[in-house]
Amino acid sequence: MKSCPQCGSTNLSNTLFCDACGTPLRDDIVVEPTRLYEDTVNGGSVDDIHRRAPPTERTTLVSGQWALIILPQRHIVRLPEIPSIILGRGHHHKDPFIDLEPYGAHVAGVSRRHARLTRKGMGVYIEDLNSTNGTYVNRVRIPAHTPTPVQPGDIIKLGRMKILIQAE
Q1: Which intervals hold domain FHA (predicted)?
Q2: Local structure of residue 101 (DSSP, 8 states)
């Protein structure tokens, strides 16, 4: 058994990430920043998502800018101002996509096409894409293919990966 250095939870000895908080349990696990993949009319482009220090207090919506904060590492992934984006792992899709694999998505049970975030007006909705391990908003599992509103401060879970929704 291993004890998590972040939250103190007990985990099986072969576990890579803490089941309670997602902290890497081995020193050789390096979490890299995610990349946004977006196909365009000109054949596609790849834009790096910039990492910044996490906000120290809850902010309010300003000009429609939203971000995902991957917990517990608190990596920030800004959502591009496009109507819809897929969250998952790997990139084998034509749709705009955020690859969560660098944050341990595979080990956390995130599907390749796990969920879709959609902007409608000043709001954001999450939709589970019939994932194997489910999508949760504030600990409540949402039905597949049912857009569910999310607000700044909400915690979504893709499988066991916890993500804080934040407005910047």
Answers
A1: 85-142
A2: G
Q: Residues 72, 138: one domain?
A: yes
At 54-105, the pLDDT tens digits run 333 333 333 468 889 999 888 889 888 889 999 999 866 678 899 999 999 9
CATH code at 108? 2.60.200.20
State phi, psi for 25 to the nearest 5 degrees. Answer: -100, 0
Count of domains for the chain: 2
pTM: 0.62
Q: For residues 164 and 93, what is the distance between their CA atoms, to the nearest angstrom?
A: 25
The overall longest dimension of the chain from CA atoms, in Å, is 51
With a CB cutoff of 8 Å and minimum separation 6, the contacts of 47 are 35, 36, 38, 80
Q: For the residues of 5-53, what is the DSSP string, one character each?
A: TTT--EE-TT-SB-TTT--B-STT--PPPPEEEE--TTS-EEEEPPP-P
Looking at the fold, whether 66 and 143 belong to one and the same domain comes out as: yes
Residues 48 and 66 in one domain: yes
| Residue that has been written with the tokens 């897929």 in this structure | 86
Structure confidence at residue 49 (pLDDT):
35
